[in-house]
């Protein structure tokens, strides 16, 4: 008879494993590699897995917030994955992007904010880290709250060298948080946006204290 599950702490943890050097199975917009992995399976028996992983690495995203105006600055941007999944390719997003090699995450967050909404935040508050899709990618995201002046935001932005085009939009805090309670299937499909708004809703006191410290 199998043992019963027990109560435990909610905590990611490391495991012992062996794996061979990855083999490239594609090299396009992002590198695509195949791993042969062996970990302990049922009863401790070896469990062999073959997994193809999209190599993305560290990324940052910024929930741009103007406390004086009581609004967030989000963006609209075309994503082929969203188009294929839902036929709604122009999705609501945060300013976000890759952390360059050797770049501090705070610097990357400020840079992406400037590139995608046209303004640089005057202060950044770390919100949380998460893995968007650990089954198929090593992407590791850090979310920030960024304080900005929404009166300086242009109607269009983006980094031409990266063939991107973004359309910033202002959304009141109340409207954005109401979107979290929209009946199924909801109006926002981007997990970065949903997580950032949920964090903001649960941490209003922390946000206000952060703003006060900025003078």
Written account of the structure:
The model has no long low-confidence stretch (mean pLDDT 95). The protein is an alpha+beta fold and 215 residues long. The N and C termini lie far apart (63 Å). The chain is built from five helices and eleven strands, in the order ββββββαββαβββααα. The strands form two sheets. Strands 5, 6, 7, 8, 9, 10 and 11 form a seven-stranded mixed β-sheet that branches. It is 23% helix and 34% strand. It folds into two domains: 37 residues; 156 residues, Nucleoside Triphosphate Pyrophosphohydrolase.
Summarize the structure.
The chain has 215 residues and is an alpha+beta fold.
Describe the secondary structure blueprint for this structure.
Layout: E1 18-19, E2 23-27, E3 31-40, E4 46-54, E5 58-66, E6 71-78, H1 80-86, E7 90-93, E8 95-98, H2 105-117, E9 123-130, E10 140-147, E11 167-172, H3 173-179, H4 191-202, H5 204-213
Parallel strand pairs: 5-10
Antiparallel strand pairs: 1-3, 2-3, 3-4, 5-6, 5-8, 6-7, 6-11, 9-10
- Principal-axes geometry comes out as globular
Q: pLDDT under 50 segments (min length 5)?
A: none
CATH class label of the largest domain: Alpha Beta
Largest sheet: 7 strands, mixed
* Order of SSEs: EEEEEEHEEHEEEHHH
Measure the end-to-end span. 63 Å
Descriptive labels:
215 residues; alpha+beta; Nucleoside Triphosphate Pyrophosphohydrolase; 2 domains; four-stranded antiparallel sheet; 34% strand; globular
